[in-house]
Specification:
- The protein is mostly helical.
- It folds into two domains: 36 residues; 57 residues, no CATH class.
- The protein has two helices and four strands, in the order αββββα.
- It is flat and about 65 Å long.
Length: 97
């Protein structure tokens, strides 16, 4: 019984390791594609999108499956981010009382 248990645990470990390596490989491929992207000049420090000529306020991230980002060239984006941050801290302070 212990041998079967050990074999199953090893199989699960190898499967998890395989999935993690596949994810790392996919991220590496996406990063290399993002570095070749023409719009990379609009990404400040690689994480902040700043393009005054782009009319969109919310833009997809360089690595598409990571989600969306704000266009920080638009003042409304900065106001939105500061408002959300302020609401968060107000709620945090109120919850501590």
């Amino acid at each position: 019984m212990d041998i079967i248990y050990t074999i199953v645990l090893k199989f699960i470990f190898v499967a998890i390791l395989y999935v993690l390596l596949e994810i790392i490989h996919k991220v590496a491929i996406e990063r290399s594609k993002a570095k070749k992207d023409v719009n990379s000049i609009y990404w400040k420090w690689g994480i902040f999108y700043y393009n005054p000529d782009d009319t969109r306020m919310i833009v997809p991230k360089r690595i598409k499956w990571l989600g969306w980002s704000l266009n920080f060239a638009k003042p409304i984006s900065v106001i939105l981010l500061l408002s959300i941050t302020l609401i968060y801290f107000v709620l945090l302070i109120l919850s501590l009382k």
